[in-house]
Amino acid sequence: MRHLLSAGDLSRDEALLILDTARELAQVSGRSVKKLPTLRGRTVVNLFYEDSTRTRISFEAAAKRMSADVINFSAKGSSVSKGESLKDTALTLQAMGADGVVIRHSSSGAARRLAGWVDGAVLNAGDGTHEHPTQALLDAYTMRERMGRLEGLRVAIVGDILHSRVARSNVLLLSTLGAEVTLVAPPTLLPVSVGAWPCAVSYDLDEVLPKSDVVMMLRVQAERMQAAFFPSAREYSRRYGLDRDRFARLPDDAIVMHPGPMIRGMEISAEVADSPRSTITEQVTNGVSVRMAVLYLLLGGSESAIGN
């Protein structure tokens, strides 16, 4: 594994290796000193062309806990705002000797293009509406920690599938790991290509909920919408929002997930988001461990993952 560009590029063994390594590295969070020497001397560049809070900070924390040097690059205020191309920015990073580049870009396929221009490892932190593989990995990690397994889990992913890179990556990864995924959304918020995805599709959330072990709610990405995809926010919430009544239809041990940021009251009620069966804050915590694992495996630390 040289890069992490798509969840679909991972074999079952590679995905499980990442999850197992993340579990090992999660021990670091319980230490008084949350620092390992594993990637000392390596340089990781966070190359973010889109705004981000959770993903950028998570990758920064992960790299710093592994003792890597971190350079945060924001398109705003950089030469990009003066018209510099992605390729020229990549060549600049190459000249600086970046060992790993974490990229978030508004264009689908940007991470794969970057991988052809630099010698270091490229990690896709979200490219357009295409993919977000580390989010899928941390989601799978969270499911396995909470439910004890991934094989045979029934996972419903609900909401704005059309604009969600998280949904696509989760479908690809979870199917590889043996889970059964059902996408639930209005027809207008499903991509044309969904028929080729390894999952089932439903338009009826109430029918799917009693048969789900995991329900992952997605944010409606209004910033990517150039047209009206549903009548109103109230109508969307009535048909596809997870409120107290719908939550009660889930099996007793089912969990609720959300990649964030949430729109409380529209796609998920505050009561459900804050319930003990919600994993939303755990996902953020687990994201650091998973990204530590990915950085370790890609950048090939010379020492064992957690040292002696």
TrEMBL record:
Query: Sorted alphabetically, which SUPFAM superfamilies does this protein's record hold?
Result: Aspartate/ornithine carbamoyltransferase
Highest taxon in the source lineage:
Bacteria
Specify which residues bind L-aspartate according to the UniProt entry for this protein.
82, 165, 219
User: What keywords appear on the UniProt entry?
Assistant: Pyrimidine biosynthesis, Transferase
Which Gene3D superfamilies does the UniProt entry name for this protein?
A: Aspartate/ornithine carbamoyltransferase
Protein's GO biological process: 'de novo' pyrimidine nucleobase biosynthetic process; 'de novo' UMP biosynthetic process; amino acid metabolic process
As its record notes, the protein acts as a catalyst of: carbamoyl phosphate + L-aspartate = N-carbamoyl-L-aspartate + phosphate + H(+)
Name the Pfam families for this protein: OTCace, OTCace_N
Q: Where does carbamoyl phosphate bind?
A: 54-55, 104, 132, 135, 260-261
Q: For the Aspartate/ornithine carbamoyltransferase carbamoyl-P binding domain, which residue ranges apply? A: 2-145
- Signal peptide start and end residues: none
Q: What does this protein do?
A: Catalyzes the condensation of carbamoyl phosphate and aspartate to form carbamoyl aspartate and inorganic phosphate, the committed step in the de novo pyrimidine nucleotide biosynthesis pathway.
Q: Which family does it belong to?
A: Belongs to the aspartate/ornithine carbamoyltransferase superfamily. ATCase family.
What is the name of this protein? Aspartate carbamoyltransferase
Which species is this record about? Marinactinospora thermotolerans DSM 45154
